[in-house]
Predict the 3D structure of the following.
Amino acid sequence: MPAPRQVRRLGLLALALWAIATADIRLWPAALTDPLWGPLGFITTFPMAWVSVWLVLKLGNLAPRELPAGAAFVGSIAMMIDGAALRFAPWLYGTDDNVLRLGAAWLLWGYGVSFAIALIWARRSTVIEGTMPLP
């Protein structure tokens, strides 16, 4: 069970990551709609997701085996904020419906990549530490 301090830190991290992603969509809509930059945005999600997962680990003061739960907690908070904002305040992301659709797709992709990285990271860490046998 995470300590209240960990929950607060991870909640604030979720809010910060949501704000950064929302600002990216709002300030650089061409990064989503451009035929070259749009696909590149999906590729560059991998290093950004890795940094996000690392922040979950460090700011949450988590053990590697706790990383998937921490990433799920942070991701679920950010996803709920995204869902509410896209429904009730879509103007936060922009005014063009195409940008909103592509931005939502990028957000979903980013959450999935982050969750996968957290799972792989935790698995590799436990194998390296010798607490989980290789299949």
